[in-house]
Amino acid sequence: MNSGYDIIGDIHGCANTLCLLLERLGYEERMSAEGWPLFSHPQGRKVVFLGDIVDRGPRIRESLHVVKNMVDAGCAHCVMGNHEYDALGYTTKAPKISGKTWVREHTPRNNRLIAETLNQFASYPEEWRMFLDWFQTLPVFLELSGFRAVHACWDQQLIDEFVTTYDGNTVDASFVRDSAITGTFAARFMDRVTRGTDLSLPDGRKILGRDGLERGFFRTKFWADSPETLEDVVFQPDPLPEDIGVQTLTREQKLALVSYSSEQIPVFIGHYWLDGEPRPLKDNLACLDYSAVKYGRLTCYRYDGETVLSADKFAWEQVTQDPVPGRFD
Ligand SMILES: [Mn+2]
């Protein structure tokens, strides 16, 4: 008897924190045959992981084992994050016509982003291969009873188009290969659901992100109600320069935005590096990425069928610089 879902945001290798959070939520641990912990809930609650298990953090391999064990045992679902998609792309040869060698090119920037993951798997190549095969099976969007989950953006139009053409919610290897070709449906779809929407900065301007990367675009909300200015749609830790924020959205920009109206069932997303006290962003939308790997909070929403989300249903584990009573050393 399933009695609700605990939806958990981006883990990025914070495996000790993940175990603490699962315990806080009442999950009980036993050992699986392979010696990795398997968490399950005595009342049959299940977890929905919002993707981005890998990259950046200290215990990526351990995080993957904990998450996959739960999924394999039927105790959790996990949707694909942009970092799992990137790992697939990084290890998949691109079609010739794309002009690329790999679906995700091995540029210095991309190399740096995946380095931590490859490092931690350096002595376990067959395990890494196994997890890559597993990433390929992850749903890219998920609709369960009463709510939806996706890593970055629920774009109903693209999702409908996907379901009509491909039937289901997973992508196969050839879809990933096609996504290397600019302008294909596969490219637009993967980018939209795992990375969300963005707009270019006007006049070729660039801003330096908190993560040290320079970008010519900014992330936007897909749930803004009747936005008028760039400031109304920006959604990222780095604010827009003031003179840009006040600019009015053009017709093209408005058309490019995706909307998620208040009448729709609740949707949960990760991806956006929020900070501060977790709370719903709208009655029917919550982001559960509170920057755990940057000493933020590994965050969960305890969902029990409600149509209006509530601030008191968040739970989290604060990540500190002090070593946690670790399961994994
Ligand atoms: Mn992330």
TrEMBL record:
Looking at the record, the residues that make up the Calcineurin-like phosphoesterase domain are 7-146
Molecular-function GO term, any one: phosphatase activity
Any one cellular-component term (Gene Ontology)? cytoplasm
Q: Where are the transmembrane segments?
A: none
- Report the superkingdom from the record: Bacteria
The record's SUPFAM superfamilies line, in alphabetical order, gives: Metallo-dependent phosphatases
Annotated protein name in UniProt:
Ser/Thr protein phosphatase family protein
